[in-house]
Amino acid sequence: MALAPALFLDRDGNLIEDHHHTCEVHQISPISGVKPALEACLQAGYRLFILTNQSGINRGKFTWSQYHACNRRMLELLALPTPGILEIKAAPERPDEPSVYRKPSPQFILEMIAKYQLDPARCWMVGDRITDWDAGKNAGIRSCAVHSGAGRPEDFAYAESQGFAIRTDFPEFVRVDLGLKF
Ligand SMILES: [Mg+2]
């Protein structure tokens, strides 16, 4: 069986607007153009995964229940065709806590590459923060930095120094780096 291409997607500031510890259902708003971009990726055979650092859970800012409600709302608004997003992994730990999955850990990406027989050469990690881009780098896949979230100018200087793709937002990444029309 041929290995499949895949996208590992940061949630806040990439797929949905970032409200800093986004935890209320009414805050959930897909970034413009993300829905048709994801649909184009599915049409092209990309397997889709979400990998999100949610330290607000262990900081006591919101609960797992609130986090899951936000994901449900996001998926409802995106209404993607089957198979949609295959798996969503959240790391609840604070940056100072040990964590298996918190980005820049490559653990989730490596597990999914093995589980779904993905082609690392056709896998990307896309997000708005250094931790996202370094998770891709640490997993040996390509990374794209998007300007639609919390990234600071110095972060993008780092992205440039590392040779990561740098785009306005996820839809631009899909058009430019994946070459898909939608
Ligand atoms: Mg983010």
Strand order, biggest sheet?
Answer: 3-2-1-4-5-6
Annotation field: number of helices? 7
CATH superfamily: HAD superfamily/HAD-like
Following the backbone from N to C, one meets helices and strands in this order, namely EHEHHEHEHEHEH
Distance between the termini: 28 Å
Number of domains: 1
| Helix amount | 25-40%
Instruction: Supply Rg.
Output: 15 Å
Proportion of strand residues: 15-25%
Per CATH, the architecture is 3-Layer(aba) Sandwich
Bound molecules: magnesium ion
Structure summary, number of beta strands: 6
Shape descriptor: globular
Tell me about this structure:
By secondary structure, the protein is an alpha/beta fold. The protein has one domain: 3-Layer(aba) Sandwich (Rossmann fold). Helix content is 36%, strand content 21%. It contains seven helices and six strands. It has helices at 34-43, 55-58, 64-78, 107-115, 130-139, 153-162, 170-176, and strands spanning 4-9, 47-53, 85-91, 118-127, 142-146, 165-167. The chain has a six-stranded parallel sheet with strand order 3-2-1-4-5-6, sandwiched between helices. Helix 1 packs parallel to helix 7 (170-176). The longest helix has 15 residues, at 64-78. The chain is globular and about 45 Å long. The structure holds magnesium ion (MG). The site of magnesium ion (MG) has 9 residues, from loops.
